[in-house]
Amino acid sequence: MKNFFTIFWIFFLLIHSANAQQEKEIITKNVWLKNWTDFKPNLADHNEPSHILTGEIVEDIKLYKKETYLLLGHVFVKEGVTLTIEPGTIIIGDYDTKASLTIAKGASIIADGLETDPIVFTSNRSVKKAGDWGGIILLGDAPLNKFGRGSVASFYSELEPKFYKNTNYGGENVVSNSGILRFVRIEYAGKKEYTAGGSFSGLFLAGVGNETIVENIMISYSAGDSFKVFGGEVHLKNMVSYGAAGNDFSFNFGAKSHLINSLAIRFPYSSNSRGARCLNIKSYNKKEEVDFSKKGTSLVAENLKLINNSKDLEFDIQAGLIKEGIYVGHNTSVSMNKSVISSFKPGVILEDKILSNLENLEKIKITDIHFKNCEGYVLSKNDSNDLALENWYANKAFLNAFSVGNRPKIFIADAKTAEKENKIAKNKVTINKDTAIPFDFIDKAPTFPGCEGVTKEESKKCFKKEMRLHIIEHFRYPEEAQNNNIEGRVFVMFDINYTGSITNIRSRGPHKSLEQEAERIIKLLPKMQPAKKQGQPVKVVFGIPIAFKSL
Questions:
Q1: Over the stretch 71-115, which tens digit does the pLDDT of each residue have?
Q2: What's the CA gap between 283 and 27, in Å, rounded?
Q3: Would the pTM of this model clear 0.90, i.e. be above it?
Q4: CB 47 within 8 A of CB 66
């Protein structure tokens, strides 16, 4: 059997039973989630498809609950045509053809489910995984901040030219109506590697106008973003994103949206390596593609719960698996209120182009937010802005608060002194064999044989390179895991003490045999020259993921 091994490969890894209590608690505390959501869609048993949808739908059509439908390849609803879906209908995306459903500009979809009878889009695989099929694309003729119009033609591999007309979006009609999506679940979407690179999204809304109704949508296990909005003026209410690899909610290219009463639950081991966020708010990817005479992206968000569901928060933060909860890009406007941001590092981060002046900060309103178990609150990619941001958002008038564990809420302003003291304490060197310093805080990395003589700046890069080579050289796929088709990623952490010896190896992964192999590899590491802080040898903790995948 061929073995495929990649360091830092991010894969889908969730053990559903371990989260049963949390899912029950979520639904109990949020009445609006009852009946129509499903946090364990892998347990559902759907009928075999009785009808196939493929190619272009050129006349009005209605799908019925009594039937089960298969999306085969890329399916387009043509301009002027309406696709109506009865409550309770099951639509299955074909894995082999990486199916998708696109509602062209000028077409409409009426998928108006019921709380007790939602419409479900899902995968046709017996063992379902993120990215089994494409997802739903809804295109409209509302404005963008791009030059000209937009197109999604590059999303589809080997698209026939006759379908190009169904891929355009954008216009001047803010009040356009692309239909209704209500009480709908979209599962295991986000097909990877379309021709422009990247992934499909569970639900992609491009140039969609404000007469379109998008409410009570749950997207589970998307390999790309769950919800992606380009331009337009679409408003989202009662959204749920669960276990996404990409961003939970992404807004770009002049989108003017409201996001109300919504939930995002992330898992450190399913997020992609680019550092996906709950909210990703940008006005452009490249400056040259947008018209700065047009307004940038603006988002009004209220009553959100953004949660990183980590079983061991300290471990995952040290391992670098947890990033910021919200990213705010240049030339955007954000108003966020009455929300919870839980277990991120930090809660919010601003692009370094955003200067901390009154004009910019008045465009980014963050009020009445409870930051829970976050390492940092509102920070900037440009570290020199952090003090100004702290002083601004710590103002008690904004009602922002934080808590750690079960401790009661404390105003951020009252916590600043303690937080700064903690940061200073982290940087103090105490040569104690029982105290390990995080890898990011040391001045010079432990020295592998072969890395002698490198500068402090080069030492960490050389250390990581040699670690990768060591793992590749000594990697073995456990026979038990191969025979039982067990795969996944093991995160292994260990200490290199102040004498350069490897100690305290611990691991976490999907199976004991994989954990044992990861620990065996680390035990074979050579003795090194110790790490240094302020010129003194120190003990350092380091972590690295090791991926096991059979082909």
A1: 999 999 999 999 999 999 999 999 999 999 999 999 999 999 999
A2: 34
A3: no
A4: no
